Amino acid sequence: NDAVAAVDRFSKALSSGQLSKAGAELDSNVLIFESGYVERSAAEYLGGHAKGDAAYLKGAHVQLTRRTAQASGDMAWVGSESEIHSTKDGKMSAAVSTETMVLKRTNKTWKITHIHWSSHTKKAGDSH
Fold first, then answer.
1. Half-sphere exposure of residue 112, counting CA atoms within 13 Å on the CB side?
2. How is 57-72 classified by DSSP, letter by letter?
3. CA dist 92 → 35, 65, 89 (Å)
4. Beta 37-39 vs 61-72: how paired, if at all?
């Protein structure tokens, strides 16, 4: 649906370093949780942590393994599970990542109002 398309546009823009395009998908008062940190607006995220996220994702291979979405009225949520492969200091690593995005429809546009990212290093036996 359109909410999932907004999540995909945000992810594609972020991973290609196009922060203004990524920001266009965010509500100005977006609340972002990641690794125990909190950012309370699009401006705060785009002016800080987004740059590191974009740099990490630019060199990574993200494989979406599962996605679940639900919408009711003007609210929707999209839950994504991924495996991320990257190289740092010449060492390959793999992470299992979960992402929840909550979106709100205003007029005919879906905006991301909340993001929660969580990940851990993939270990032998992980099902992802």
1. 29
2. HHT-EEEEEEEEEEEE
3. 21, 20, 9
4. unpaired
- pLDDT of res. 43: 98
Nearest to 99 by CA among 81, 86, 75: 81
CA distance 105 to 59: 32
The pTM for the full model equals: 0.92
- DSSP E strands, the chain: 26-34, 37-39, 61-72, 75-88, 91-106, 109-121
Residues present in the chain in total: 128
Closest CA to 62 of 21, 14, 4: 14
What tens digit of pLDDT does each residue of 111-124 get?
999 999 999 888 77
